[in-house]
Amino acid sequence: MKNVKQLFKKLIAEDSGQDLIEYALVAALVSLGSIAAISGLANSIGTSYNGVGSGLTSAV
Protein backbone atom coordinates (compact mmCIF):
# COMPACT_ATOMS: atom_id res chain seq x y z
CA MET A 1 0.00 0.00 0.00
CA LYS A 2 2.90 2.32 0.74
CA ASN A 3 4.31 1.88 -2.77
CA VAL A 4 0.96 2.73 -4.33
CA LYS A 5 0.75 5.94 -2.27
CA GLN A 6 4.25 6.91 -3.36
CA LEU A 7 3.39 6.18 -6.99
CA PHE A 8 0.30 8.40 -6.85
CA LYS A 9 2.28 11.20 -5.19
CA LYS A 10 4.89 11.02 -7.94
CA LEU A 11 2.25 10.99 -10.68
CA ILE A 12 0.50 14.03 -9.21
CA ALA A 13 3.76 15.94 -8.85
CA GLU A 14 4.98 15.03 -12.36
CA ASP A 15 4.44 17.85 -14.87
CA SER A 16 6.95 17.16 -17.63
CA GLY A 17 4.25 16.37 -20.21
CA GLN A 18 2.28 19.52 -19.49
CA ASP A 19 4.17 21.68 -22.00
CA LEU A 20 3.63 19.19 -24.79
CA ILE A 21 -0.11 19.12 -24.12
CA GLU A 22 -0.27 22.91 -24.14
CA TYR A 23 1.56 23.12 -27.48
CA ALA A 24 -0.76 20.48 -28.93
CA LEU A 25 -3.82 22.45 -27.81
CA VAL A 26 -2.46 25.66 -29.34
CA ALA A 27 -1.70 23.84 -32.60
CA ALA A 28 -5.22 22.41 -32.67
CA LEU A 29 -6.71 25.86 -32.07
CA VAL A 30 -4.63 27.41 -34.86
CA SER A 31 -5.57 24.63 -37.28
CA LEU A 32 -9.28 24.99 -36.49
CA GLY A 33 -9.04 28.73 -37.09
CA SER A 34 -7.27 28.15 -40.40
CA ILE A 35 -9.89 25.65 -41.53
CA ALA A 36 -12.68 28.07 -40.66
CA ALA A 37 -10.99 30.91 -42.54
CA ILE A 38 -10.29 28.80 -45.62
CA SER A 39 -13.82 27.42 -45.78
CA GLY A 40 -15.18 30.95 -45.46
CA LEU A 41 -13.05 32.15 -48.37
CA ALA A 42 -13.74 29.15 -50.60
CA ASN A 43 -16.95 30.55 -52.09
CA SER A 44 -15.49 33.97 -52.87
CA ILE A 45 -12.40 32.47 -54.48
CA GLY A 46 -14.58 30.12 -56.56
CA THR A 47 -16.75 33.02 -57.67
CA SER A 48 -13.67 35.02 -58.67
CA TYR A 49 -12.29 32.15 -60.76
CA ASN A 50 -15.67 31.65 -62.44
CA GLY A 51 -15.79 35.34 -63.29
CA VAL A 52 -12.31 35.24 -64.80
CA GLY A 53 -13.22 32.11 -66.77
CA SER A 54 -16.40 33.70 -68.10
CA GLY A 55 -14.51 36.84 -69.07
CA LEU A 56 -11.88 34.84 -70.94
CA THR A 57 -14.53 32.76 -72.69
CA SER A 58 -16.45 35.84 -73.87
CA ALA A 59 -13.23 37.55 -74.97
CA VAL A 60 -12.35 34.68 -77.31
Report on the architecture of this protein.
The protein has 60 residues and is mainly alpha-helical. It has one domain (18-59). Helix content is 90%, strand content 0%. The protein contains two helices and no strands. The protein has helices spanning 2-13, 18-59. It is rod-shaped and about 85 Å long. The mean pLDDT is 86.
Secondary-structure element order, as H and E? HH
Number of helix segments? 2
Low-confidence stretches: none
Pairing-aware structural class of the strands and helices?
mainly alpha
Count of the separate structural domains: 1
**Average residue-wise pLDDT:** 86
* Backbone shape: rod-shaped
What value does the Rg take, in angstroms? 26 Å
Give the end-to-end Cα distance, rounded to a whole number of Å.
Answer: 86 Å
The largest sheet is: none
Helix proportion range: over 70%
Strand % is: under 5%
Strands, total number: 0
